[in-house]
Every structure is written in C-alpha cells, then in structure tokens.
Amino acid sequence: MVSRVRIDQNKASLVQSLIFSHDNPEGVFDTYADVMAFAAAVGKKYDYRLPLETIAQEPNPISYDIFISRGYDLLVDVLTIMTMGNLDFLSDENSSQERRITLFEQYANGGLSYLQEQLTGAIDYQERLLLLLDKERHTPKVSQEFDLSRFL
Predict the structure, then answer these.
(1) What is the reported pLDDT for 148?
(2) Which of 80, 83, 105, 121 has the fewest CB atoms within 10 Å, i.e. the most exposed one?
C-alpha cells in the first residue's frame, strides 16, 4: 500500500493558491509536496501541530513517493526525531511510517494555519512569504529553534 500525505479541507484552497501555474502566476511553489514541506517546517518552527479534521478531495492526497523523490523524507524523519526524542519511530515498518506521516501532516496543517493567518489580505503571496522569511532571518536566534533560513 502506498502511503499518502493528506491535506485538511479547510486549508485546500490555500495550498492550491500557493502553487505556481499558467493560471496562477502568483503561486510560489512548484508542487503540493513543496507547499506541505514548507508548511511542516513552519509548523515545527512555531511548535504548532493541528490534527486534520476533514480530508480534502482536491487536491488529492499526495503519494509519499513524491516526498521521497524530492528529499522531503529526511524532513519527515527529522520532525519525528525532534518531536519524539528518539529513533524508535524510524523503523521501516508500515505502522511506523504511517505515524511519521501523521506527525508530518499535523505540523503541515499547523504551519498552513499560521500561513493562512499571515497571508490574509495579501495580494502577492510571494512578496509576503519573502517578508516573513526575511524577518525570520534577521530575528536573533534562540537555541533549539527550527531554522527556516534554508528555504531562502
């Protein structure tokens, strides 16, 4: 069975609006996996996890293989280690992978909630996200924070 990363229905329109396409030149990210990885990093940064309430049908749940091909499986593993404090959840067992994906989904959902709040009223999401990242980059570092500067 192929694992999938799900998106909460109340964040689906935000996720879709962040994708760059011919119809949406204001979009910032190339794929839904990119959006979810960024959102999960934001969620971890602010230690904000939200369980999914209703699963979106559009966009469809994303195959975990896409996350692996883009190197985001490492992010999933790091989030798991940082949250659980041990390596027990990194086994290859299906149930262990599902728990890691659920944790990732919760951080992504929390991050999307934060981004939804920050992007309210913004006309240009790209500019607003760059301002948020720039602000983060120039904020003094506190130990144990999740560093978003790698996305610059």
Answers:
(1) 67
(2) 121
CA angle 138, 36, 140 (to 5 degrees): 15
Map tokens 């329109």 to a residue.
13
Token pair for 39:
């959102």
pTM assigned to the model: 0.86
Tens of pLDDT, residue by residue over 1-38, are: 569 999 999 999 999 999 999 998 888 999 999 999 99
Which tokens belong to 144? 């144990």
Tokens matching residue 47: 């230690």
Dist CA 19 CA 42 (whole Å): 17
Q: How far is CA 53 from CA 36, 110, 136, 138, in A?
A: 16, 12, 29, 35
Angstrom distances, CA of residue 5 to CA of 9, 12, 33, 124: 13, 13, 9, 27
CA 26 to each of CA 2, 37, 58, 120, 134: distance values in angstroms, whole numbers, following the listed order: 32, 19, 20, 15, 19
For residue 42, pLDDT beyond 60: yes
Q: Are 1 and 95 in contact (CB under 8 A)?
A: no
* Structural domain spans, the chain: 4-137
Q: Centre a 10 Å sphere on the Cβ of residue 146 and count the other Cβ atoms it contains.
A: 16
